[in-house]
Amino acid sequence: MIGSSAATGSLLLADISGYTRFLQDVADAHREIIIEAPEPPPAYALISTLLDTMVTAIAPQFRLAKFEGDALFAVGDDPATMPAGTAVLDCLRSCHEAFHDRLDAAGTTWTCRCEACARIGGLDVKFILHHGPFVIQRIAGQEELLGPEVNLVHRLLKNDVRSVIGDRPYALLTTAATAALAVPSDGLIPIRQTYEDVPPVDGYVLPLAP
Questions:
Q1: Domains of the chain by range and CATH?
Q2: Whole-model pTM?
Q3: How far is it, in rounded angstroms, from Cα 10 to Cα 61?
């Protein structure tokens, strides 16, 4: 069954930084094991564990829309569960903390200490939070979010935030998100992003590490 409906809400992307390179390095270092072993190395299961952890950490404020490789895309469109004000920032901080708690736990059980596997500690997560209208397309019981605002939140993954705050994890909140969710800008870093074919996007950056 195919159907669609219009909605408005907060769109959240949580992207694991460094995972693609980490996985490739592990594959290069353990090519024979990957080919011959009956089960893949633990590095391949790690992404599932980390994504599961983050999905749990952002609920019930946000519900999962879909997994996108080493990222998750979630939506907050229920006024009864959506946070407001500083609670929005607390939700993002809590998710980042849960990610690192799980990563630290995985590191304590990591058996291989080769140069590639030792880079597990270099993984981190960044967040993009936007707000706006979108279309929910339902196909065969599955839900797909579509529309210009959905496209924009994905484009915002490519940004110049680190040229402002350095190599640190962060949350980038658009002014559309901060206005809709009444997030105070005190302590946040203003930033503007420009892309082809769309007006400049203003927002704020919340560094998630010193």
A1: 2-207 (3.30.70.1230)
A2: 0.90
A3: 10
Q: Is 76 helix (H, G, I), strand (E, B) or coil?
A: strand
Query: Crossing angle of helices 42-58/86-109, nearest 10°?
Result: 160
Query: Tokens 């952890």 label which residue?
Result: 53
Q: What are phi and psi of 80, to 5 degrees?
A: -70, -25
Q: What is the 3-state secondary structure (H, E, C) of 16-47?
A: EECHHHHHHHHHHHCHHHHHHCCCCCHHHHHH
CA–CA dist 39, 37 (Å, integer): 5
pLDDT digits (tens, 9 = 90+) for 69-123: 889 999 999 999 999 999 999 999 999 999 999 988 876 766 666 766 667 778 8
The dihedral formed by the CA atoms of 184, 188, 194 and 197, expressed in degrees to the nearest 10 = -20
Would you mind telling me the total number of residues written for the chain in this entry? 210
DSSP symbols for 126-172: EEEEEEEEEEEEEETTEEEEESHHHHHHHHTTS--THHHH-S--EEE
Pick from 22, 21, 27, 28: nearest CA to 41 = 27
CA distances to 66, 121, 174, 180 from 89, in Å = 22, 24, 13, 14
